[in-house]
Amino acid sequence: MKRIVAVIREEMFESVKSALIDIGCDGMNVSTVKGRGRQLGISESYRGSKHCIDLIPKTRIELIVNNERLEEILGTIQKSARTGEIGDGKIFVSDVEEVIRIRTGERGSDAV
C-alpha cells in the first residue's frame, strides 16, 4: 500500500476531488495548509503599500491506496491539478506498512 500526499492550489481542489471520485477513489483526508516552494510568494498592493505574502495557502490531500491503483491515481491528480504555472504543487508517495479499520478490525488492503 502507498500513501499519497498531494499539495495543490486551493482553486484546483474541486477538479481533483471530482476526478478522483470519477475513478472510484473517494476516501481522502483534506486540509488547508500554507507553504512555499519555487513560487516564493505573492506581492500585492494594498492602499498604496506593497505587501509580500510568502506562505501561500494550499490544499493538502492524503490518500492510502493499493499498489495496483497507484499510477492511475497519480496520473489523475497530476492531470486535474495542473495549470502549467509555477505553484501547481507537489505529490509525495511513501510506503504504508499497515492499515487497520477500527470499526471492524480489518487489516491491510481490506481496510483501505
Summarize the structure.
With 112 residues, the chain is an alpha+beta fold.
How is this structure best described in words?
The structure is a single chain. This protein has two helices and six strands, in the order βαββββαβ. The chain has 112 residues and is of the alpha+beta class. The radius of gyration is 17 Å and the shape is elongated.
For the largest beta-sheet, the strand count, sense and barrel status come to: 4 strands, antiparallel
Helical run tally: 2
- Our measurement of the CA-to-CA distance between the termini, rounded to an integer number of angstroms, reads 9 Å
- Identify the quaternary structure here: single chain
Say how many strands there are: 6
Could you estimate the helical fraction of the residues in percent?
10-25%
Q: How much beta, percentage-wise?
A: 35-45%
So what's the overall shape? elongated
| Helix-strand topology string | EHEEEEHE
Strands across the major sheet, in which order? 2-5-1-6
Overall residue-averaged pLDDT value:
91
Structural class: alpha+beta
List its traits.
alpha+beta, four-stranded antiparallel beta sheet, 2 helices, elongated
